[in-house]
Amino acid sequence: MAETRTILELRSAVSPEPRVHYLRHAFELPAGATRVTVRLRFRKERLCQLFLSLFDPAGFRGCHMQPGARGEVDLTLWVAPDDASRGGIPGALPAGLWHAQIDVERTAETTEYLLTVEAELGPVPNQAIVAGYPEGYVSRAEPGWYLGELHSHSHESDGKVSVAELVAAAKSYGLDFLALTDHFTVSGYRHLAALQGPELALIRSMEQTGHAGHANLHGLRRWHDVFTDGRAEWNINSLAREVRAAGGLFCVNHPFSGDLGWRYHEFDWDLADLLEVWHTHEGPGNLLAFGLWDEQLRRGRRIVGVAATDSHDPHAPRHRLGGVLTAIYAPELSEQGLLQGLRDGRVYGTRGPRLEFSAAPAGAPDRVAWMGALVPPGPVVLRAELRQLAYPWHLHVLKNGYPHAIVEGPAAPERIVELRDTAAPGDYYRLELHALEPYNDFPYHRWREWHTLLAFSNPIFAG
């Protein structure tokens, strides 16, 4: 018979001052445990955002969050050798010192909480847990353009559906790839093995959800410590360096999203691989994101701009998966192929139109430089290939982030635009495609507005 034993019962409180980022409560797990359950209960009257995580002697075992909850909030997380709750990671339950961590994301009021830990003791199940991701799996071996979603959540964190339902939705919308970016946890990875297939590539990712901003970590093979706030020995730059050293990519998310915007002022932008410049929920903040991107590009940084839906419910209108897509030219449709395509920078974001952007020295059309690449300084020919133009449009060619040329046209299956210019070392060019729309008494206008954006390219550099 299994025995349930209460190991910890603690009543305490969090307050706005002094600012505390994390509260870690230790407990000793005895040998022979078959399940560990940690439970955090508190009442949310106004603004009190607490998340719960669990650590065994060797590291992270899971996280539970309910950011939209009101009133009585109950966060329960459990792990066992052969199973786990949402957000939890199954596996052996070693005896020794464990920790329950309360992430005090924010609070505007003093809030009491009750933290309990229970252990079930009995015969330990011998069912093995498979890691859940087939290393080296290739969905399609051929190089080409692939369109998909780089920011999505399942109910392993704060999404509304399971990993399987999320993947099924991605397939139903015709996406080529999907990055699973649950907050804090990698618990969803164990479900991926059964979901791989030739129609969809899956990227192991995680969203660092800090108190001064969010970042997606793409191409992970294990959990990385995303708790970077208020710790002298480990900060946002430490995390970015570790992810990159492990072969992953660091993406700054929705940088102007109010309280969720990027406020890590100590961040070393040389460590950023990607930047979410187009996010379906950010409205006018997208214009600021493009401005930040141009500022970094003018400083010589090769940061790749990407688009994101940040889907929490794949079929809800505001969160519909693939509301905007990132298109990647990759050597193959696989996790590693897509990561390589992102590094190369032959990438664009789109709400529907297809886009290719290239440059070549005048008089040498065979020396083509694609997005992310270098074209020699001097006279150049810029070439934009536009397809699936469902609306009257205007194409903005930007040089070093500033307006350089505007071309407009009607809805059409395809249109090619060529322009000539003289590029100096350090210059860069990028494109924005916007819908043409009536405005007041004018028959048209050609302003760059967040709501008219249809697609954008990544830059081509001169040098």
Write up what this structure looks like.
The protein is mainly beta. The chain has 3 domains: 3-121, Jelly Rolls, CATH 2.60.120.380; 138-350, Alpha-Beta Barrel (TIM Barrel), CATH 3.20.20.140; 354-462, Sandwich (Immunoglobulin-like). The protein is elongated, with a radius of gyration of 24 Å. It is built from 4 helices and 31 strands. The protein has a 15-stranded mixed sheet that branches. It has a 4-stranded antiparallel sheet with strand order 1-8-3-6, with no helix packed on it. Strands 2-7-4-5 form a 4-stranded antiparallel sheet, with no helix packed on it.
Entry summary:
With 463 residues, the protein is mainly β. The protein is built from 4 helices and 31 strands.
Q: How many distinct beta strands? A: 31
Largest sheet: 15 strands, mixed
Kindly report how far apart the N and C termini lie: 72 Å
As for the number of domains, it is 3
CATH topological fold name of the largest domain: TIM Barrel
Class by helix and strand content?
A: mainly beta
